[in-house]
Write a structure and sequence with these properties.
It is a single chain. It contains 6 helices and 7 strands; from the N terminus they run H-H-H-E-E-E-E-E-E-E-H-H-H. It has helices at residues 2-25, 30-34, 39-92, 173-213, 216-234, 236-256; strands at 99-103, 106-109, 112-115, 120-123, 128-133, 137-143, 150-155. The strands form 2 sheets. The protein has a 4-stranded antiparallel beta sheet, covered by helices on one side. A hairpin with a 2-residue loop joins strand 1 (99-103) and strand 2. The protein is elongated.
Length: 262
């Protein structure tokens, strides 16, 4: 019983909302809004509204498509220019580059070697690495092109005087010599990179300048959007639909004394 009453109340509320909405569309007396005697007048007003909405929907779709095209072309343009700007910036200041390997306190990067714990950074251009061996230690000499060399100690055997609980990292000779070869190979690659850098940078700057000037597709898309706006503004279909709706609203107002909404 309670559930039935609840359903009935919901139906009554829904009907009230629908009736209020209907009254807002077709103002006047109750008969003007609901009676079959005025069904034809209501149908004509509804049809006029539908025709204007259809034209407006078509115009919104055309503008939305043209505007989306502008956004897409602009995004492609900005993405292309941004990519070239990053390439130029990276060539102007390569920095360390990507990490290529680690051994003890040495970190090899694409363009430099970093030595810890001192934190000294040595550029790879012109650098040479060499391994020497003593009874308990391997010594990796790092010779920069225009700076004093670094000597990095890499134990390959534990010192008997070392405290039993002290942790000492031990390095295999093959491991150290392999890292020496990796440093020298990276230095040779860096030399080739530096030799070709001026030409590569000039080309990248030229490509960036050309990409910035290549605004033709964007201007075309923007012009197409402007053309759509002009067509929408002067579209005879909308003028006709609006005039028809205005006439039907006038007729309804003459009939009821109340002006209906668009």
């Amino acid at each position: 019983m309670v559930e039935a009453v609840r359903v009935l109340l919901l139906l009554m509320v829904g009907a009230g909302i629908w009736a209020a909405w209907r009254r807002s569309l077709f103002p006047g007396t109750w008969a003007h809004t609901f009676h079959t005697a005025y069904a034809e007048e209501r149908a004509l007003l509804t049809q006029a509204r539908s025709e204007l909405r259809a034209v407006d929907k078509d115009q919104r779709r055309a503008y939305s498509e043209a505007d989306a095209k502008v956004g897409s072309v602009r995004g492609e343009y900005e993405q292309r220019v941004g990519k070239l700007k990053r390439e130029v910036a990276l060539l102007e200041d390569p920095g360390r580059g990507t990490e290529r390997g680690r051994l003890g306190g040495l970190v090899l990067y694409e363009h430099a070697v970093l030595i810890f714990p001192e934190g000294r950074q040595l550029p790879l251009a012109g650098l040479q690495a060499r391994v020497d061996r003593s009874e308990r230690d391997l010594w990796l000499y790092i010779h920069p092109a225009d700076d004093s060399p670094e000597l990095v100690r890499l134990p390959h055997r534990r010192d008997p005087a070392t405290a039993p609980d002290e942790i000492v990292e031990i390095f295999d000779e093959g491991q150290v010599r392999g890292f020496e070869m990796k440093i020298n190979a990276a230095a040779a690659a860096e030399k080739r990179f530096r030799d070709g850098l001026p030409a590569q940078l000039a080309q990248a700057r030229e490509e960036l300048a050309e990409a910035r000037k290549d605004t033709g597709p964007l201007k075309t898309a923007e012009q197409s959007r402007a053309d759509v706006m002009d067509r929408n503004r002067t579209d005879p279909r909308r003028k006709e639909a609006l005039a028809n709706l205005t006439a039907e609203r006038n007729a309804w107002q003459d009939l009821t004394g109340r002006r209906p909404p668009r």
